[in-house]
Amino acid sequence: MSNKSLPDVPPTHTIKPIDPPPADVEKPTMAMLKADINSGATGDKTEVFDPGMAMLGTCEEAAGTPLRPEQIRFARYQERFQRWRSGSRKTSAAHNKHDGIPTLFIGFIAAVAVIFVVGLSVVSG
Known about the structure:
This protein is mainly α.
């Protein structure tokens, strides 16, 4: 169902890829750090907009202690460095476009099934 058939629903732009902000700026902002994350530059998530309820840094500003540009620059460096230090491969299953196989869960279900079948055969036999 598209948004065109629902006139009260505004169009969403969450599936459009986000371009990373410039890496080396004199006075970085928390919005740049969020854009680093949303653009996939940190390797945490896929490269799309994530509409958060509160922007990064909101708590600090509300407390009267907003982060200084030096602190934000350090946070951006650490986020980007951590991503590239591990290699250029993105690490999450979402980046590989699959959810992975929950082997522990499937193994547990199989073990319970085997115990159940063995228990029934012992009781009935």
